[in-house]
Amino acid sequence: MKKIEAFIRHEAFDPIRDRLASMGLPSMSVSEVKGSGRQAGAPDDYRGRRAGIFLRPKIKLEVVLDDKDLDRAVDAILELAQTGYPGDGKIFVVNVEESIRVRTGERGDVVLEAHPEEG
């Protein structure tokens, strides 16, 4: 199992979410975060003074998936998040050692499967 942590622009989120869902990867966690990358701070007026804004708003998208789905998920994020300008974001891929479904105690790859329909 792998975990994708993608820091992306806000406007890229909806298309990425829709694409991943259409690929059968609807499970994700999303956070609004602020951070700084290699781009310089943007000048802005704040309380009558010129100041640099170094913490830019981003969306942090986290997706845990099967190894076989990794490349196509990363490719989709790249395609939809890339504008060619500084601040497009970053993607990190990390190994997931274990997964456990809290409700049932199930462990392993079964945790990534959709829940069976309950009557």
Short description:
This protein is of the alpha+beta class. Helix content is 21%, strand content 34%.
Strands of the widest sheet, in order across it, are 2-5-1-6
CA-based gyration radius = 18 Å
Domain count: the total is 1
CATH architecture: 2-Layer Sandwich
Total number of helical segments?
2
CATH class term = Alpha Beta
For the sheet with most strands, the description reads: 4 strands, antiparallel
Question: Average pLDDT across residues?
Answer: 89
Counting helices, strands and paired strands, the structural category is: alpha+beta
Work out the strand percent. Answer: 25-35%
Cα end-to-end separation: 30 Å
CATH topology type: Alpha-Beta Plaits
Describe this structure in words.
The protein is α+β, with helices and mostly antiparallel strands and 119 residues long. The chain has a single domain, classed as Alpha-Beta Plaits, CATH 3.30.70. Helix content is 21%, strand content 34%. The chain has 2 helices and 6 strands, in the order βαββββαβ. The protein has helices at 10-22, 70-81, and strands spanning 2-8, 29-35, 42-46, 49-53, 56-65, 89-95. The strands form 2 sheets. It has a 4-stranded antiparallel beta sheet. A hairpin with a 2-residue loop joins strand 3 and strand 4. Helix 1 packs antiparallel against helix 2 (70-81). The longest helix has 13 residues, at 10-22. The protein is elongated and about 55 Å long.
